[in-house]
Write a structure and sequence with these properties.
Layout (H helix, E strand, L loop, with lengths): L2 E3 L4 H5 L1 H4 L2 H5 L3 E3 L18 E3 L18 E3 L19 E3 L11 E2 L5 E3 L7 E3 L3 E2 L5 E3 L7 E3 L8 E3 L19 E3 L19 E3 L18 E3 L7 H8 L4 E3 L1
Parallel strand pairs: 1-2, 2-3, 3-4, 4-5, 5-7, 6-9, 7-10, 8-11, 10-12, 12-13, 13-14, 14-15, 15-16
Length: 249
C-alpha cells in the first residue's frame, strides 16, 4: 500500500494501526486526512510518506512532525495559530497553510522548500532574516495584515504575491534578482521604486493602491503593468501608455 485516504473521523487516526499492519503503513507514500474533523494530530511513524494532506479540519496546533521523506504538506482551512519549526522535514518542497489564524511565522530551515503559500492568515509582519530557504521559488502571503516586509534574501524567487495586505511601502533592498512576477494589488502604497531593480520582472500588479506617480527608466523584460484604481495624473497615464507595455490604468 502506497496511498491512503480517510473520509471519516478522528477515531480512524487513533485506530490506524489496528486497521492496517505496520508493514503496510511503513510503505505509505501518500496520506489524505482532509475533512476528517481532526482536532489534534498524533505523531505518526511513516518513514516513506511523501505527500500529506490535512486540509478542512479543526487543528489548532501541530506536533513536531518527523517525516524524513515528506515533500508536500497541505494544511489549509484549519485553526492553526502557530506552527513548529518543521526542522525534521528535510525534503519538504511544497508547504501550503492557507486560511488559518497564523499571527507569526517560526524560524525555518528547509533547504529544499520551493513553494510556500500562507494566504488569508493574520500575519502583521514577515521577516526573512530567520528563514533559510535557499531554493524558494514561489512565495504567496496574500490576504494577511502585513504592514511591512524586510530582509528578503531569496535569490531563486520567481513569483511573489503580497496582494490584499496593508503595505505602505515596498523596499528595493532585497535580494530577489530572479523575480518575474510581483503582485501588490490592494495595499496602501503611495509610490513604487523603479522596476529596474528587478531586471527579470515580467508582470507587475499595483492596482487599487494610492499611487500618484509612477516612473520607469527602462522597460527591460516588463510585459504587463496594472496600475488601475490609483491616483495617477492624466499626464502620467499618457506617459505610461507610450512605453509599449500592456498597461491597465
Amino acid at each position: 500500500m502506497t496511498q491512503l485516504t480517510l473520509e471519516a473521523t478522528q477515531e480512524w487516526l487513533r485506530t490506524l494501526n489496528k486497521n492496517y499492519t505496520i508493514e503496510e503503513l511503513k510503505e505509505l507514500e501518500q496520506l489524505d486526512l482532509s475533512n476528517c474533523g481532526l482536532t489534534e494530530l498524533l505523531n505518526l511513524n511513516l518513514p516513506k510518506l511523501k505527500r500529506f494532506y490535512l486540509s478542512d479540519n479543526l487543528l489548532t496546533e501541530l506536533p513536531a512532525l518527523s517525516l524524513p521523506d515528506l515533500q508536500s504538506l497541505v494544511i489549509s482551512n484549519n485553526q492553526l495559530t502557530e506552527i513548529p519549526t518543521l526542522s525534521l522535514l528535510p525534503k519538504l518542497s511544497y508547504l501550503i497553510l492557507n486560511n488559518n489564524q497564523l499571527t507569526s511565522f517560526p524560524n525555518l530551515n528547509l533547504p529544499n522548500l520551493q513553494t510556500l503559500i500562507i494566504n488569508n492568515n493574520q500575519l502583521t509582519e514577515f521577516s526573512a532574516m530567520s528563514l533559510n530557504l535557499p531554493k524558494l521559488k514561489h512565495l504567496s502571503l496574500s490576504g494577511n495584515r502585513l504592514m511591512y516586509i524586510q530582509d528578503f534574501n531569496f535569490p531563486k524567487l520567481r513569483t511573489l504575491d503580497l496582494s490584499f495586505n496593508q503595505l505602505t511601502e515596498f523596499s528595493t533592498s532585497m535580494n530577489i534578482p530572479n523575480l518575474e512576477y510581483l503582485d501588490l494589488d490592494c495595499n496602501q502604497l503611495i509610490d513604487f521604486p523603479d522596476p529596474i531593480v528587478f531586471p527579470k520582472l515580467q508582470k507587475l500588479y499595483l492596482g487599487r493602491n494610492l499611487i500618484v506617480k509612477f516612473a520607469i527608466s527602462t522597460v527591460a523584460d516588463l510585459q504587463y503593468l496594472d496600475l488601475s484604481y490609483n491616483r495617477l495624473t492624466d499626464k502620467n497615464k499618457e506617459y505610461l501608455k507610450s512605453l509599449g507595455i500592456r498597461t491597465f490604468l
